[in-house]
Amino acid sequence: MDEVVTQVGAFAPLIMNAVKALIVLILGWIVAGAVGGLVRRRINSTPQIDPTLGNFSASLVKWVILAMVLVAVLGIFGIEATSIVAILGAASLAIGLALQGTLSDLAAGVMLVVFRPYKLGQYVDIGGTAGTVKDLNLFTTELVTPDNVQIIVPNGQSWGSIITNYSAHDTRRVDLVFGIDYGDSADEAMKIILDVAKADERIHSDPEPWVRVTNLGDSSVDLTARLWCAAADYWDVKFEITKAVKEAFDAKGVSIPYPHSVEIHKQA
């Protein structure tokens, strides 16, 4: 019995250190999250600062605090900070090879914040993946698709891909194509399209609406309309102008043809 008590007593300091380390980890995680959230709110409440910087800074502060917590936990077990630095220095090559993807994402995250090819709330296409930017942190960019699907893109892939930002400018051009019958007047149809466009207050007068005959198809004369509007109105303008032109064509007797198929039967 005395031997068992002696063994338990030998492990008592280790158990106490483990409990202390667990408490430090929990408190450190809570503090890191709280301070990161405070940094995000303070930065995002300043109109002159881009919210993207707030999210990135909050993520950076959180990870720095967690790194300090990790050093403190190791110190509880008697491992000094200088020893940690020495160990990391000796193992730097192995760590660098093992974490090269993570370090690449971290470096890319810094580049994305510095050069800002996209910001929070903008609709972008990153290497063929499209969505609205919801978050940009140290390692990843979070996108949300129009049907509310979350997509996580590593910053390394984002920075190394072609980025198409549909929200970078305040205005966008809406391109619409309408087909009319060969027997109808192209000039009259173009006038109808222009009248519909000019009647819509969302369509800008500079650049002015543009309508031209752009193709002679197999069964239709194709008219292309190029209309400028605010970027936020793009989809509404595209859908509503299409509907309005169809109704105007019907009212003016302009027909929209559809492909026809002809069957030829040979008699023996």
Topology diagram in text:
Layout: H1 2-44, H2 51-76, H3 81-90, H4 92-98, H5 100-115, E1 123-126, E2 129-136, E3 140-144, E4 150-154, H6 155-159, E5 163-165, E6 171-180, H7 186-199, E7 210-216, E8 221-230, H8 234-252
Antiparallel strand pairs: 1-2, 1-5, 2-3, 3-4, 6-8, 7-8
Helix pairs in contact: 1-2, 7-8
- Structural class, from helix and strand content? alpha+beta
Morphology: elongated
CATH topology of the largest domain: Alpha-Beta Plaits
Strand numbers in spatial order across the main sheet: 4-3-2-1-5
Helix content: 40-55%
Q: What is this structure, in a nutshell?
A:
The chain is of the alpha+beta class and 268 residues long. The protein is built from 8 helices and 8 strands; from the N terminus they run αααααββββαββαββα. It folds into 3 domains: 1-79, no CATH class; 122-165, SH3 type barrels (Roll); 171-252, Alpha-Beta Plaits.
What does this structure look like?
There is one protein chain. With 268 residues, this protein is of the alpha+beta class. It folds into 3 domains: 79 residues, no CATH class; 44 residues, SH3 type barrels, CATH 2.30.30.60; 82 residues, Alpha-Beta Plaits, CATH 3.30.70.100. It has a 5-stranded antiparallel sheet. A 3-stranded antiparallel sheet has the order 6-8-7, with helices on one face. A hairpin with a 3-residue loop joins β2 and β3. α1 runs antiparallel to α2. The radius of gyration is 31 Å and the shape is elongated.
Identify the notable features of this structure and list them briefly.
268 residues; alpha+beta; SH3 type barrels; Alpha-Beta Plaits; 3 domains; 5-stranded antiparallel β-sheet; 3-stranded antiparallel β-sheet; 8 helices
